[in-house]
Amino acid sequence: MVDLLFPVTLIGAGLVLVSVMTSALAFRFGAPLLLVFLSVGLLAGEDGLGIHYNDAGSAYFIGSLALAIILFDSGFNTRMRSIRQAAAPALMLATVGVLLTAGLVGVAAHFLFGLPWLEAFLLGAIVGSTDAAAVFFLLRVGGITIRDQVRSLLEVESGSNDPMAIFLTIILVELILSGGSQENAWLEMLKGFGIQMGFGLLFGLFGGYVVLAGAKVIRLEGTLYPISILSFALVLFGLTGMIGGSGFLAVYVAGIVAANNQLQGQVSLRRFLEGLTWMAQIAMFLTLGLLATPSNFLAIAIPAVLLALVLTFVCRPLAVWLCLLPFGYKRNETAFISWVGLRGSVSILLGIIPLAGGMENGQLLFNTAYIVVLVSLMLQGWTIAPMARKLGLIVPARMGPVERLELELPGGGDHELVVYKVAAESPVALGDERLPRWARPSLVVRDGHSMRYQYAGRLQTDDLVYMFVAPQYIRLLDRLFASPVRLTLDDEDFYGKFVIDPHQPMSALAEAYGLSGLVDPAQPPVSIRDHMTERLGGTAEVGDRISCGEVELIVRDLDADGAISEVGLSIEETEKTPNLPLFQSGRELWQLLRARLASKGGQG
């Protein structure tokens, strides 16, 4: 064992280092970063450098632990506004959507591979959920900003649909290994689903509030604080799993609760989780890459690739469309949501379960899941940004990049210490704007020399400005220190060609554009801003839009308090983005049905 210490350390650390170094190439060429990590593991494995690793049990353990960390971080980075805005459709996709996708893929797998029905549906369950790591990475690190309503749905769905896929996989494996002879099998599945999801949700809520209470009472040395929070999350994961609940759902919910209730020390905790999550992703993908033997893929390559294409172009889109019918999503939004259905580590991880369980076709299921993931990352991972642009879902930036560093102050003060680097041609660098008094600037660092703000004169490019700011005003300061952005004609079209006063009453808008039924005369008058804020779940972001009959209202700008300060108006028929012939909303289908019934009545 001692003799293995140094070689194993050398190989393991070397693979991690290679993965990190190759990430620079991934960012430069736009490759899906998780595909890079997976490829490094494959190249180092049995068919590459010759590292022999076939312990499915330890791979599942490493992958599950890494996934728990990733899901806790995903919950920690999920805003409550996203939950409020997308809870219902995301829950539908995370449950019914996974079930529909698994069923449709199962039908295709039965005919492509000749598998028995239960095993075919098991393969559908294995690849039925989207991958939280892949989706979160592409949406947050991939350099694209999409409409908030769509982004919120994708984030919540990807973080919450894994428990459903895990539950279906485990139940179907148990059913197959028992010979399918269990009485009342479907009743047991429903009972097991209720127990897993119920305990997962209950323990997640309980655990999140325990974290909040403990952070207020227990005082730890700074570096121990994030370690204690993560350790508790893993304790929660293990405890929930031991009593039959979904530990993955529990840690995700606990992360949401803790992050959205003013948990102390969030800045240091986020940095710690961000680094650890990257490490967990690298470790998981390297392990799963080493476990595979690519030479075994050739025998099933054609049907497996066909299955991946059927999943991408038929099963996922059909399931998403059916689930989103009641929620009024537009065709382009539904199309994009169906396209961002990346399969990743979760599918490979679930593919290990039948392999470790000794199923006769376990290796076939694992290899097929692996090929599906590779096709998904290569096909969808490279095309997320172009697809969003083609469908008109990219939110044009209203300001350029901002270099800002937030430093956490001890205690629960209502101010933060932030450091800005002055960008070239920014309003403060050009002298067009001065820093407001409430910003409390205290120090300026110029060319390596520090000076008090009062003696620094006009701010210059690359100056570092230290100031104490109330958190709600950071958005306003970002504008002052950001590099400029020139809106194109297409950008102006996105924000609406007509600018309206958000303080005007909705009744005036309804009267001007003949929007009957938009305002109830019996209700107290409400402003355009308040109406939009309510429709958007309580808060708004630049680029958010709501449909009001034949027109759309778009948030063009926000004030320092995050309230809507400028609204654009767009006539829906003038949109330049393509209107797809598929993915009609429930409202469109109802209007089409009414028109056909009316035409038949007129003919009669």
TrEMBL record:
Domain of life according to the entry: Bacteria
Subcellular location: Cell membrane
A cellular component annotation (GO) from this entry: plasma membrane
MF terms in GO: antiporter activity
Transmembrane portions of the chain: 6-27, 34-53, 59-78, 90-114, 120-142, 163-181, 193-212, 275-292, 298-324, 336-357, 369-388
Major subcellular site: membrane
Any one GO biological process: proton transmembrane transport
Record keywords: Antiport, Cell membrane, Ion transport, Membrane, Transmembrane, Transmembrane helix, Transport
Membrane topology note: Multi-pass membrane protein
Residues of the Cation/H+ exchanger transmembrane domain: 19-390
A Pfam family per the record: Na_H_Exchanger
PANTHER family: K(+)_H(+) ANTIPORTER NHAP2, NA(+)/H(+) ANTIPORTER 1
Protein's name in the database: Potassium/proton antiporter
Species in which this protein is naturally found: Pannonibacter tanglangensis
